[in-house]
Every structure is written in C-alpha cells, then in structure tokens.
Write a structure and sequence with these properties.
Elements (H helix, E strand, L loop, with lengths): L22 H12 L11 E6 L5 H9 L16 E7 L12 E4 L11 H16 L10 E7 L5 E5 L15 H13 L4 E8 L8 H9 L6 E6 L11 H4 L10 E3 L5 H5 L4 H13 L13 H41 L6 H24 L13 H17 L9 H12 L9 H13 L2 H21 L9 H35 L11 H18 L16 H8 L13 H13 L9 H4 L1 H25 L23 H52 L3 H7 L4 H25 L12 E3 L5 E3 L17
Parallel strand pairs: 1-5, 1-6, 2-4, 6-7, 7-8
Antiparallel strand pairs: 2-5, 3-4, 9-10
Helix pairs in contact: 1-23, 4-5, 9-23, 10-21, 10-22, 11-14, 12-13, 12-21, 13-15, 13-21, 14-15, 14-21, 15-21, 16-21, 18-20
Length: 778
C-alpha cells in the first residue's frame, strides 16, 4: 500500500465542508435550545461519543479538532457531558483567516479563546464548579464551539467514560449512574452513536457496543471506532472487526491510531500523530484495501456525511415538533393574559370575566357549551337524568302498602272505630294511613332538590375559565358568591316542596276522578277475599249456612253486613238492618264519591234503634240490680294488640283499605313527580341562570374590590416571564429553520450508506477534485 492509497489529511486546502448548509443550522439550534437548559423537550440531531474509561475517546476528539484542548489524567477525564460543535471557517487562501478559537456558552458568547490550553483549563474549572474537585460526575453539560479552517462541520457530545471502580467522591453506583446518563442521550432516535472500543480488548465484550446495542438494537444509528490499532498483540490485526464480520454495524467501523501517553508527555503534535498514523497503515498489509475505513481524516469525513444525511432525514420531524411546541407555548402564554395597570382596564377585565362565566354557566345548563363532553352526560343532561331516572323511577318502584302489615291496618281500623264498634266507617283509617304514606314522599323530594343543588355546584366549578387561574382571589370569591347564591335558591325550593306535600295531606280529595271509590273497592275486596278463601279453605261451624245456599237478596244484604259489627267480629241485626236501609236509601248503581257520605244514612238509623234498645235495657237493669251480687272486672292490659286471626269480614275491611291507599297514593305520587321538578327548576335552576350575573355585579363589581380581586401571585409572574422566554426561543428556532436554503434538500444527495457502512456514489454523480488524491484514487 502506498501513501496515495490513504485519504488526504484534513487541511484547509484539501477539505470541503460537505454539510455546510445543514450542520451549522443544527449547531445554531443547539445554542438556541441551550438557553432552556434541561426544560427543553426538542431533541436535535447530534453524535454522542461513548466508550469505557481509557478507551481513547478524548484522543479521537482531539484528533478531529486537530488541537489539544481536553483535560488529561490517569482516572476518569470527562466528568460532565461536553457538547462540542466544530465549525469550519474559510482559510486565508479563500479570503478568511487561519485563526482557531473556542467559545463557551456559559460565558459571554462573544468571548473568543484563542489559547487552547486556556480552553482546557476552563473545562477543568467548569467541571469542578459543578461536579467538585474530587472525581465527581454530573449530567449538566458544558457547551463548547470551536471554529477552525481545519475541521469539518460536526456536532458531538463527549459523554463520561464507563468506569467500574469508584474513586474520590464518586458514589458506589457510579457505573450505573454513568450508564443511565449515557442512555438518556443515545436512546433518542435523533442521536447517532459513536461507539469507541480499544483494539487490544475483546470486541464482543465492548462496553460501548453493549450500551449502544441497548439503545439501537438494529445498529442503524451506531458507528464503530476501533482505537489503538498500533498496540495490538504481534501477529494480530483488526481487519475482521473493520469489515464488520465480528459484530456487524449498518454504518460500519473506522480504525484509528491514537497518540500514546509518551507522545502526549513529549508534546507531540496532532499533525505529527496523523502522519505517523498514515505511515502505520502503509506498513500493515493486513489493512490493504480498507482505505475508507482507516484514519482520523476518514472518520471526520464519514461523520460529516452521515450526520448530514441524518439531519436531512430528521428535518421534517424536527420542524413538526418545533411548531407543536410553539403552538402549545403560545397557548400557555395566552392563558396568563395581559397585564393591565389602569383602573379602567382592570374594571373592564373583571366585568369580562364575570360575563363570560355566566354565559358558560347558562350554556352548560342548556346543553350548548363548546366544552361539552362527548363521553359522558354533563350539565343540564345530568339534571334531567336525576329528575326522570332517579327521582321519578324511585317513586314508581315504591309500594304504599309495603311497610304496612295486615295487623297494622286492622289495628288502625279498630282504633278509628272506637266505641262505635257496631259500624265500620273506612274513611277514618284510610285518611290516617294515606297521610302517613304521603309523608313518605317528602324525604325523596327534598333529596332530589339536594341532588340538583350538588349538580349546580359541580357545574359552577367546571365553568371556571383557565384565565381565572391567574387571579386566585377572584376565583375564590366567585366560588363563595355562587355557593351562597345556590344555597339561597335551595331554601325556597325545599320550602315549596314541603308546602306541596302538606297541601296533599291537608285535603284528601276522594272525589278525584282517578280515585277508585268505595263501591269499586268493596267489590274488588270481596272478590280477592273470596278467591283467597277458595285457595285456602277454612273449616266452618256446622250450623253455618254456606253462601251459595243463601237467597240472592239475603246475600246482597250479607255482603254489606261488614258495615255493622261488634268488637268480637259477630254481625248484629242492627248492622244488617243498617246495611239494608243503606242499600235502599241510595239510587242503584251510584258510585262512592265520598266515603263519609256513603255511610251517613246508616249511622242515623242505627243510632235511633240503639237508643230505643238502650232505654229498655236500662229500665230492666234497674229492676234487677238489687237482686244481683257485685261483679269485678279485670284490669285491661297496658298494650293491646289486635288478634292475628282474621274473620272474613275483617279480611275484606283490610283489602278495602289497601285498595283505597294504593289508588289515592298513585294520584298523589303523580302530582309530586310533576310538581317537585317544576319547583326545583323554578326556584333553583332557572332562578340561578336569570339572577347570577346580577348577583356577581352586586357582590364583586365594586371599585374598592377590583385591585384586590385582580392581584396576581408572584409565582404567576415568574411563569409568565419564563413562558415568554420559551416562546421567544421557539420563535427564534422556527426562524432559524426557515433560513435553511432550498438547495439543502439536495445537499450530498450523491452519497448513500452502502453495505457495512461504506459510502457509495450514486450513478451519475461526479466526484469533486477535493475528494480524490493526486492520482485520482480514493
């Protein structure tokens, strides 16, 4: 192999910047987003350099720059990520300058450092300032830009080397921490990985390739660099490694020869080291034919080409992400609103907030809100659901007699009958029991009003605009005002509900057209009891006449004999006569429109006969009294309960009472189902829509309160300032992308990455003179 087989050294006259259009744009974007620090979420295309401690990473970077500028030492050298931007300038031969300088972003960007030993000292000082002076490690990056006519445009991130044993102030888990730091960079798809491995170690166990494989398992973003080829064991070489036969990589490998420690101590220049590297490859036949994979100059060219192509591929995504971040930040900044200093401006702002809130509140109740959820019921729809599916449905499922046993009804009948035991008048127990059942409707009705109140409170919270977050005092006062206002509206609605139920209990309208009536209730009760007796036959006394054998006229009178009875359940003659007289006194087919009116005639006739019998009995008793001895009565028990055994007549009476209760309860229930929602809507819901704005004006729109209500917290001012700065940076980044020339779309389109990472020329693309050596060969 001759010298002509090697790539030219990177000098000003021999190097043309392949990525002069796009790489500086990305470098500028890095400077822009560096102002955000760790808050930046935009991942820019870059090359991360990874490797184990003493793998030769620093030597590779210095060779790419052509100058000594990195700290040296026996232990870990890179203790903070170093973002290194290489920017090619025009040489003197092209009207530029041969000067080289560096700029640190943490300094004034205009300050140029021409002494590279000073750059090294600044890196050491800045590292110690954050990481301490005893080998500590930090993930806070140092940003350095080097401008020189002897470099290619490349953007690199030098990451701390993977170390196994902690030293100095390093924690015991230093290896895990460094690996985590490295992964935080290389896991991003926008990051290319430069995996550095020394040739005198086992490539299969390379820490750099292992961690790169975790982030890039397919090897699409990884470039392998094999260093220290000159210190491999005699008789061995890295040819198979460079050809990708050991561990294949899509972007291939490049082999380099580093300066030895002796060279560094002897201050051997990098230029001399590159010449020695060139001679080494010429003297090793094993590396014949691998020109495009050997030497630092070829590594620089390869990095430049790959980075340009990678940036071009990432540009559409990068533009989209910057635009999305710009839109979100602008929206956030807008939410903080403008600062208004004048009293008039503040008053207009306060009135605007109150008006917008009331409009949002009304729109939500009416189902016209733009913020209405499509995944669940909200606003007025929930109120309607409470009325129809909670309140009405719950009342319809209630049986008015479910909590009344037959014994309860029988006891109520006996209590209502009192000393008039010969006559059963069902309107007395019915009214007592039906009022009791109507009163059960009060609690669910009041609970319904409370449910609606709770919904209105939820709606009031949902209507709080994002703009109000900047005024916590105003937000709190508005919440208090509407809370008190709704509670005030709840009280009259609940009072109206109580009045409605009291009205229903004060007047039992047995003339209601939907009420079952007494005659119908008697007929149905007789049928139910009769069917029940047939299905459960009862043994009758021998002298009892079966109903089927009685005469039809007598049977009709007998069916009404329940109207007159004694306390023991036996029917009296007076009761039969009273029932017969009652039958005759009324017209045939007359319905029972009033319970008391139905039995009024029977009461009068029965009372007249009882008076006659009582007078006769009194006179006889007085004549016999002197001949009789004294009879003593037992004390009645403290608690009297009705007997569990019911006669047929008592069963009929119970059934009549149940039918009357159910019929009238249904009438009242329907009234309540209709009137309670109306009362709630009138006194609470619609009232709040009509009067809320007026209440806000009365309570909050006061000149002495405006300044207090519109006072912003200090944190909000800080957020507004920070968001404004972020917005400015994103706008600057967006303008920077617009600076990208149209021809950048076709920059280096004549190159593609071939198999094993070799860059090939596409058909029809002419190579420039600077890409060949003097003999026209590569």
């Amino acid at each position: 192999m001759s010298v002509d087989d090697l790539p030219p050294s990177p000098s000003a006259s021999a190097v043309t910047p392949l990525g002069s259009s796009v790489i500086p744009i990305v470098n500028k974007l890095q400077d822009i987003f560096a102002q955000l620090g760790s808050k930046s979420t935009i991942q820019l295309p870059q090359v991360a350099v990874v490797g184990s401690q003493s793998s030769g990473k620093s030597s590779v970077l210095e060779a790419l720059v052509g100058r000594d500028f990195l700290p040296r030492g026996n232990d870990i050298c890179t203790r903070r990520p170093l973002v290194l931007q290489l920017l090619q300038t025009k040489p003197r031969s092209e009207g530029g300058s041969d000067e080289e300088w560096g700029e640190f972003l943490h300094h004034n960007p205009a300050k140029r450092i021409y002494d590279f030993s000073e750059i090294r000292r600044e890196i050491e000082a800045e590292t110690n300032r954050i990481s301490g002076g005893n080998k500590g490690v930090s993930d806070n990056p140092i940003r350095l830009k080097i401008s020189s006519p002897n470099v290619l445009d490349i953007s690199l991130v030098d990451l701390p080397g993977i170390t196994k044993v902690p030293v100095g102030d390093q924690p015991s888990d230093i290896e895990a921490r460094i690996r985590t730091m490295i992964l935080s960079y290389i896991k991003n798809p926008s990051c290319l990985i430069l995996a550095v491995t020394p040739a005198n170690s086992d490539l299969a166990n390379s820490d750099a390739l292992q961690i790169a494989g975790n982030a890039d398992p397919d090897g699409h973003r990884t470039i392998g660099v094999i260093t220290k080829l000159d210190i491999m064991d005699r008789g061995t070489d890295a040819r198979n490694h460079l050809l990708g036969k050991t561990i294949p990589l899509r972007l291939g490998y490049v082999g380099v020869v580093n300066r030895s420690q002796e060279d560094i101590l002897m201050n051997r220049s990098i230029k001399d080291a590159l010449i020695a590297e060139e001679k080494f490859f010429l003297s090793r036949p094993a590396y014949s034919g691998l020109t495009d994979r050997l030497g630092v100059p070829q590594l620089a060219k390869k990095l430049n080409q790959i980075l340009v192509q990678h940036i071009k591929a990432m540009l559409p995504t990068l533009k989209s992400r910057i635009n999305s971040a710009l839109f979100a930040t602008a929206k956030e900044y807008e939410s903080y609103g403008d600062i208004r200093e004048s009293r008039g401006g503040q008053g207009a702002l306060l009135l605007s907030f109150l008006t917008k809130y009331c409009e949002a509140y009304s729109s939500t109740l009416e189902g016209k809100s733009k913020e209405m959820s499509t995944s669940e019921l909200s606003g007025g729809a929930r109120i309607l659901y409470i009325f129809q599916s909670v309140f009405v449905k719950s009342l319809e499922e209630v049986d008015p007699c479910e909590d009344l046993t037959d014994e309860d009804i029988r006891t109520a009948i006996q209590n209502a009958t009192g000393p008039r035991s010969a006559l059963f008048v069902p309107d007395v127990p019915f009214e007592v029991l039906v009022r009791r059942q109507i009163s059960r409707l009060l609690d669910p009705s009041l609970q319904c009003a409370r449910f609606i109140y709770d919904e209105l409170i939820k709606i009031s919270h949902q209507c709080m605009m994002t703009e109000l977050q900047r005024f916590p005092v105003l937000q709190k006062r508005m919440d208090e005002v509407i809370g008190n206002f709704l509670r005030e509206g709840l009280e009259p609605s609940q009072a109206m509900i109580r009045d409605l139920l009291e009205m229903e209990m004060d007047y039992i309208n047995t003339s209601h057209p939907n009420f079952i009536g007494g005659t119908k209730a008697v007929e149905l009760a007789m049928q139910q009891v009769k069917s029940s007796r047939i299905s459960h036959p009862v043994t009758r006394p021998k002298d009892t006449v079966e109903p089927e054998k009685a005469a039809s006229s007598a049977s009709q009178i007998k069916t009404r004999s329940f109207l007159g009875r004694q306390a023991n359940g036996n029917v009296t003659d007076q009761g039969v006569l009273a029932a017969a007289d009652a039958e005759k006194s009324g017209p045939a087919g007359n319905t029972w429109t009033g319970l008391a009116s139905m039995f009024r005639g029977s009461d009068v006739q029965a009372a007249a006969k009882n008076n006659l019998l009582n007078r006769t009995f009194s006179e006889a008793a007085q004549a016999m009294y002197q001949n009789l001895s004294t009879i003593y009565l037992k004390e009645p028990p403290t608690v009297l309960r009705s007997s569990e055994n019911h006669s047929e007549q008592e069963s009929v009476e119970i059934q009549i009472t149940k039918l009357l209760l159910k019929s009238y309860y249904d009438i009242v229930r329907k009234n309540v189902e209709d009137l309670v929602p109306k009362a709630i809507m009138h006194f609470l819901v619609n009232y709040s829509k009509r009067e809320l704005h007026n209440v806000f004006i009365e309570k909050l729109y006061r000149e002495n309160l405006i300044e207090e209500l519109l006072k912003e917290p200090d944190e909000l001012a800080i957020k507004r300032k920070r968001t404004q700065e972020t917005l400015r940076i994103l706008q600057q980044a967006n303008r920077t992308l617009d600076e990208l020339p149209l021809e950048a779309e076709s920059v280096e389109r004549g190159y593609r990455i071939g198999s094993e990472g070799k860059h090939e020329e596409l058909p029809g693309t002419r190579r420039s003179r600077t890409e060949t050596n003097g003999n026209g060969r590569f």
